[in-house]
Design brief:
mainly alpha; 61% helix; 70 residues
Length: 70
């Protein structure tokens, strides 16, 4: 719930290094009465959506690129 921009950028870099064939990515949704919901520095929903789209589009683009190379 408190992923920093730096941590997210590290995740994006990993997609270059490992060239995933598949990822399961989810947008965090706080649930009441949980420790995660009480954590500081929660990522705004809009930013979380943007990050999700960036990550999934990047991996999808790599998969398409790799499929065309084979």
């Amino acid at each position: 719930p408190g992923e920093t921009d730096s941590e997210f950028n590290d995740t994006l870099k990993l997609t270059d290094e490992f060239q995933f064939d598949f990822i399961e990515a989810y947008i965090y949704s706080p649930r009441s009465n949980t420790l995660a919901a009480e954590m500081p520095n929660q990522v705004a929903r809009r930013k979380a959506n943007k990050r999700y789209n960036m990550l999934t589009q990047k991996v999808l683009g790599q998969l398409k690129s790799n499929a065309g190379a084979n």
